[in-house]
Amino acid sequence: MVRPRHPAIKYKPVFQKLGTSQTIIGLIHMILAVISTILSPSLSSYCAIAIGVLYLSTGLVASSTSRSPTNCNVTGGMILAILSILASGGTTALYICIFILMGESPRVASATEIGLLIGGFTLNAIELLLAIVHSVYCCKGGCICCRKQQHYRPQPTTNVAVIIIQQSSAELHKIDKTMLWHCQL
What we know:
It is a single chain. The chain has 185 residues and is mainly alpha-helical. The chain has two domains: 7-140, no CATH class; 155-185, no CATH class. Helix content is 74%, strand content 0%. It is built from six helices and no strands. The protein has helices at residues 12-39, 43-67, 71-104, 111-140, 157-167, 177-184. The two termini are 43 Å apart.
C-alpha cells in the first residue's frame, strides 16, 4: 500500500534548519543555565535549565519532521513551538526588565553576570523568532487544526426523486410508490 505524501514534505529543508538551530540554542541555553546554577544557585537558574530542555525538544521534533513528516510530529512541533514562543517571549521580557533594573541599581554587576545575561537574552530572542517561524511552517505543512476538512454530506432522498422526475416525464411511471413515500418524509 502506498502512503500519500504528507503536505509538510515540501518544507523538509526548512524543518532541518529550524531543528538544528533550535537544538543548538537549547544546548547552549542549558549550558549557560548550568554555569549560572553553579555560580549562584537559584530558582531562576533551574527554570532556565527547564526552558533549555523545552528548546532542545522543539528542535528535535523539527529535525524529526524533516526526516519523515507525519501528522503526529507536525502537530507536536506546533505545540512545542507555541510553548517555546511563550517561554522565550516571557523570558526575553524578563531579561529586558533585569537590564532596566540593573541600570538603576547602585550595585555593579560582575562581567560574568553581564555576560550570562546578554547571552541568555540573545538566545531567548533568537529562539522567539525561530519558534514563530517553526509554528508557521507547521501550520503551512498541514497541521490538523489548519487543514481544510472535507465532510461527507449525504443528499436527502427528496433530491434523488426530484432528479429522477426531472430527467424524463416518461420515466415517472417507473418510480416506485415507496420512493414517493420517502420523498414525502
